[in-house]
Amino acid sequence: MNTQPRLSARQRLLAAASELFYENGINTVGIDRIIEHAGVAKASLYDCFGSKEELVRAYLQERGDLRRARINERLAHFDTPAERILAVFDFLGELAAQADYRGCAFMRARADANASDKVKAVVAETRGFILEKFTELARAGGVANAEALAKQLVLLYDGATVSAYLDGNPNAIATARALAVQVLVLHNLTPKNI
């Protein structure tokens, strides 16, 4: 006997969208496929979201919220700003090692030439989190030009994300992390246990 409560139509639609959009791409998945996968009526999609565009926005928002929470939770286990910065790369490495890794959902959504302003805004907000986090950690470490360091780290993070997925490079994240260590040292932010 299943004692778990049944998910609402909204929750089922978001779960289906998350699985299908990430696996197959936003543009290749139609609403009929989503509602079939979610096991809801077409009217439920429109009642809950109003349009596919709003479902895409909600999917990305939920994914971004989860990513921020998971990164913040991970960083709480480390003491120094340098360790926390490298923990972001370690987290990315764990994601990229998963069999269902398809790269960054936000980059993929933004790469769509027809992405709506709402989708672009969620992508910018979520991607901005990584830059803000690196900037905050660089400042906490006393780096003179924290913004410059953060931009360098984002470039490594983004490059590793793309290379791990598009090139199928299993060493991309480890390489980016090793380069991040060198960049941190250049900015006098030396991690322990390099």
Shape: elongated
Structural class: mainly alpha
Helix content: over 70%
Number of helices: 9
As a whole number of angstroms, the C-alpha radius of gyration is: 19 Å
Mean pLDDT: 92
Unreliable sequence segments: none
Strand content: under 5%
Q: Biggest sheet: strands, sense, closure?
A: none
Q: Give helix and strand order, one letter per element, not per position.
A: HHHHHHHHH
Q: Could you tell me the number of beta strands?
A: 0
Q: Compute the separation of the termini in Å.
A: 51 Å
Give an account of the 3D structure.
This protein is mostly helical and 194 residues long. Helices cover 71% and strands 0% of the residues. It contains nine helices and no strands. It has helices at residues 9-24, 31-38, 42-48, 52-75, 81-96, 105-111, 117-140, 146-166, 172-186. The mean pLDDT is 92.
Blueprint (SSEs and pairs):
Blueprint lengths: L8 H16 L6 H8 L3 H7 L3 H24 L5 H16 L8 H7 L5 H24 L5 H21 L5 H15 L8
Helix pairs in contact: 1-2, 1-4, 4-7, 5-7, 5-9, 6-7, 7-8, 8-9
